[in-house]
Specification:
Elements lengths: L8 H9 L2 H4 L3 H18 L9 H10 L4 H20 L26 H5 L6 H13 L3 H5 L6 E2 L2 E6 L4 E6 L2 H8 L19 H14 L10 H13 L4 H8 L3 H30 L1
Antiparallel strand pairs: 1-2, 2-3
Length: about 280
């Protein structure tokens, strides 16, 4: 029988999760780390940590180029684990992820255009559902994916702000309630993996990227995060105050101001062109 490998990724992740360096992190940070840790463990649990090469880390980074923030997170978490192995566990491993150039902060996520929203009818069911949840709740994609049926109660719903790890009760749009009522229930979560677990972010995001590719090159700039920005713009166009938008989306005042300006330009341009066209028809 083959002798079991020592110092595997499963061993390393298990040790890290029980150490104060992880347990003392904020709940929202632990949740973000866990997504990457689970993915690493799922694919590499029995592999020895020392077998990882710098070329492999670069390949992992390049694999997720379409989602640069996630790509950078993968490299950063691998680097964190390797440093933990060397400095805390005294494993004889090299940090092959150290110094790899990251993609860095990207430009702001663009809100989806109307033509792409209209194409949602052609999207896979899980992509259509997460889109409706993001637009209707103003949450980040991962928070929307993790929503449960019992988050909705009558006219109200409980939404999560992942950055502050707080739950807020807000009004639930009738259109979102109607959409959810038309969908089959397959578990406790709206996007259910089984009776008790939600689908993973990776599975939903992968389905989204495949659907986006089917729409052609002009759809490439838009991400699931852009739907949250569109939700903010729609609220601003509907005449909501900054305080009302913040009560729904829990966005910072700076980000609300940024997207309110986008909404104002759009609304003012429509009003101006409508006036010009009316004057032309009257002359």
């Amino acid at each position: 029988m083959k002798k079991p490998e020592k110092d595997t990724w499963a061993d390393l992740i298990r040790a890290y999760r029980t150490h104060p360096k992880f347990t003392r992190l904020a709940t929202s940070t632990k949740r973000a780390y866990d997504r990457i840790l689970n993915e690493i463990a799922e694919k590499n649990a029995d592999k020895p940590v020392r077998s990882l090469t710098r070329a492999q880390v670069r390949a992992i980074h390049a694999k997720y180029v379409d989602t640069p923030r996630r790509a950078d997170w993968m490299v950063q978490i691998i680097s964190l684990l390797l440093n933990f192995a060397r400095q805390t566990l005294d494993w004889k491993v090299e940090n092959v992820a150290e110094g790899i150039e990251l993609y860095g902060k990207q430009r702001e996520f663009e809100p989806w255009p109307d033509w792409m929203i209209s194409k949602l009818e052609t999207a896979p069911a899980n992509v259509r559902t997460v889109a409706e949840l993001i637009l209707g709740t103003g949450q980040r994609p991962n928070a929307a994916i993790n929503m449960r049926h019992d988050d909705f109660h009558g006219e109200w719903m409980d939404v999560l702000d992942e950055k502050t790890d707080t739950r807020i009760e807000v009004y639930s749009p009738p259109s979102l309630r109607a959409f959810l009522a038309s969908q089959p229930k397959r578990g406790a979560h709206i996007l259910a993996k089984n009776l008790t677990e939600p689908l993973g972010y990776s599975a939903v995001e992968k389905a989204f990227r495949a659907w986006r590719a089917s729409l052609g090159e002009k759809a490439r700039p838009f991400t699931l995060h852009g739907l949250r920005k569109l939700a903010i713009i729609r609220l601003a166009e509907a005449g909501c105050t900054d305080a009302q938008i913040q009560s729904i989306t829990n966005q910072t005042p700076e980000m609300i101001a940024y997207y309110r300006a986008r909404a104002s330009r759009k609304r003012l341009s429509k009003a101006a062109i409508t006036l010009v066209e009316r004057n032309k028809s009257e002359t």
